[in-house]
Amino acid sequence: MAIFLHIGFPKTATTSLQLAFREHVADLKAADVCYPLIDDDFKQRYLRLYDQKRQNLTEASTGDLKKSMQLMMELIQEANCSDVVLSCEELTNFMMMQYNQKNLEVMRDALRKIDDDVRIVAYVRNPSDFYLSILQEKIKRYAGVLEPETFHTNFAKTIRLYETVFETKAIVREFHPSKLIKRDIVADFLSATGLTRVDISKWEPIVSNESISPEVLCALDLARREMGGSKTSELSFAFQESEMFWRKMGRISREVGTPSKPVLFRHVHDTIMALNADDIKLLKERYGISFAEGKCVEGQSAVPKKHQISAIENLMKVDKQLAIYIWSVFSVRAIREIFTLRKKVRRLRASEEK
C-alpha cells in the first residue's frame, strides 16, 4: 500500500480535486483507493494542525488531532484498499503555516504507522498567476494588497523540506490547463500518481473557485478600510461576513454586465517573475517544470496615488467608476436590509404586546 499525500499548493484547483474525490469516494474504493472522510471533511483539514502557525506541538495542542488521526486510521483499515489519497492544501499555505521541520516529522511518523510508503504530491503554477490568485484570496479577507516586490513563492524550498522529512522525491506537476492531462486536474492527478485504474469517464467536471473582477477587488478593499485623515485602519469582519461581502459584490458586478477578469500589468508580472527566478530555475532543474507564460497586459496606472481609491489600481486596469458603483449599490442594499429588519422587529414586538 502507498499513501499519496497531496500538499497543494493553494490556488492549484485543490478544492476541485477534493470535491471530486468526495463525490466519488465509492468509485475510488471500488478501484482499491481509499479517500478517508471524517465528518465529511473532504479537505482533511485536521492535517494542518501539525504545523499551523505554532512553534512546537504539545499534548494540549494535539488532542483533537490525535482523535482525527485515529479515526482516519480506522477508516483506512476498514476500507482495506491498496492505496490511500490524502489531500490538504493548508500544508503549503504560507499565510497560515510555519513549516516547522520537527512538527512535520511528527506527521510523518503518524502516517508511517499506517504505511511506510508515503509519497508527496504537489502542484505549482506560474509565480505571476499564483500571485494574482493569492492576491484575490487576500482581498476577500483583508484590506490592502500583497506587494509584488515582496512576493516569494518558495515552491522549491517548501517541497524540498517535505522531501527531506519524508525521505522521498516529490511528484511535482504544473497547474495550467495546457499542462494538465486532458486539461483536467483529476485526470492529471491520477496519471501522475499511477492511479489510472480509477474510471472517471462518467465524472462531471467540478470548478470550485471563481475569479473576481478588478472592480470588485477595489470595492472590497474600500469596504475593509476606514479613512481618517492621513491614516488608514482596517475594519475587521468575521469569515461569514467576508464571504457575504465578496459574493454579493460579485453578483452586483454580474448584474451590470460580464465582469472583466483581473490581468496584471506587464511591469508587475515581470517584477514577480524576476523576484522568483531562482525558484523557477530549481523547479526546472529538479522536476522539469517549464512554466507556461503568465498573462499580463501593457500599461500602468495613470492615476496619482493620492487620487487612487485602492492600491489595486497600481497592479491592473480598473474601471474606477464601476468599482464605486458596485460599492454604492452594495451599501444602499445593506441599508435597505437594515430598515426591512427593523420593520420586522417592530411588528414582532407589537404582536407580542397584544
Structure description:
- The model is unreliable at 227-231 (pLDDT under 50).
- The radius of gyration is 23 Å and the shape is globular.
- The relative contact order is 0.13.
- Helix 9 (239-256) packs across helix 12 (320-353).
- The chain contains 12 helices and 7 strands.
- It has 2 domains: 2-125 and 145-193, Rossmann fold; 214-260 and 319-353, no CATH class.
- The strands form 2 sheets. Strands 2-3-1-4-5 form a 5-stranded parallel sheet. Strands 6-7 form a two-stranded antiparallel ribbon.
- With 354 residues, the chain is an alpha/beta fold.
Features:
354 residues, alpha/beta, Rossmann fold, five-stranded parallel beta sheet, two-stranded antiparallel sheet, 12 helices
Order of helices and strands: EHHEHEHEHHEHHEEHHHH
Share of helix, binned: 40-55%
Strands of the widest sheet, in order across it, are: 2-3-1-4-5
Terminal Cα separation, in Å?
70 Å
CA-atom Rg in angstroms: 23 Å
